[in-house]
# Entry
Amino acid sequence: MDKGHREALREAARQLVREKGLSRTTARDLVGASGTNLRSIGYHFGSKDALMSEVLAHITAEWTAAPVNASRTDPAAAPEDRMTSAVRTMLTDLAAKREDLLVYLEGILEARHSPTLAASLADTQNSALGSISESITDGAPKLPRETAEVLARLLMAIHDGLALQLAVSDSPALHDLDVLVPVIAGLGITLAAGLDVPGAAEILATLLDP
# Structure
């Protein structure tokens, strides 16, 4: 029964934060929607903030798992093909992630006043970066670890930035993956070729020929 309460609270929290937001979801909302009681929150999570932290971690894990798994579907695929598959998966149904992205952004703002949320967000982001970096080096094992992490951060920035644009204004251009994916892929090549940045050409060569 205790396990049932824990899962019921997590599911209720995930739904309520989408509907009401983090700050407007109260402990009483949570127990009402989950059919539990106020003591259950403290018993299973320690606090409401800790429960909200789990929700944010789950959202980020979902965003991360799909492209990482896509990049590993065919281990024999060329690095550029693995990256293209990951980016395409990352951007698929971006508009459907709107509510979750808004919840995550609210979590960042709330973290200024909650050490629990702040610590959880940092751990969650580091975990996501680690997973993405690892998938990049799987395809390009000669790539330095630091470079893979920077690429992971850039991919996260692209995902979150485009999702944020959709949250503000729904543009048809942001739904067309046949345009988005080649443009994003071509951006790295263009920058490496057009900017006089030491090491850029070598990084690109490593990605294309690991």
